[in-house]
Amino acid sequence: MTKTIAALLISACFAAGASAAETDKETKEDIARHRAMAAAHENAAKCRESGKSEEICLKELQAACKGLAIGKFCGMKHEH
To answer: Which segments in the chain show pLDDT lower than 70?
Structure first.
C-alpha cells in the first residue's frame, strides 16, 4: 500500500514539473509580448518626436501591434 502511495506522489511531482514548464513557457511568451508592445510604443514616441502627425504615428503603432495586443491602441490608450 505504501508503495502505491509513493508511486502516486512521485507521479504527482512529475506532473507538477511538467505543468511548471508550461507555465515558464507561457511566462516567457508573456514577457516577449510586453517587450514587443513596449518597443511599438517607443517607436510611436520616436515617431512623434520626429515631427510626424499623431494620425501617421497611430497608424504605424496599429500596424506594429497587429495581432499582438487587444484593441487598436496596442493594449494601451491614454487621454488626448
So the answer is: 1-21, 76-80
pTM for the predicted model, two decimal places: 0.64
User: What is the spatial distance between Cα 2 and Cα 17, in angstroms, rounded to a whole number?
Assistant: 23
Residue-wise pLDDT for 1-24, tens only, equals 555 554 544 555 555 555 566 789
Residue 74 in 3-state DSSP? coil
**Longest Cα separation, the chain:** 75
Cell of 60: 504605424
Q: CA nearest 37: which of 79, 80, 71, 2? A: 71
Q: Around Cβ 78, how many Cβ atoms within 10 Å? A: 5
* In contact, 46 and 78? CB cutoff 8 Å: no
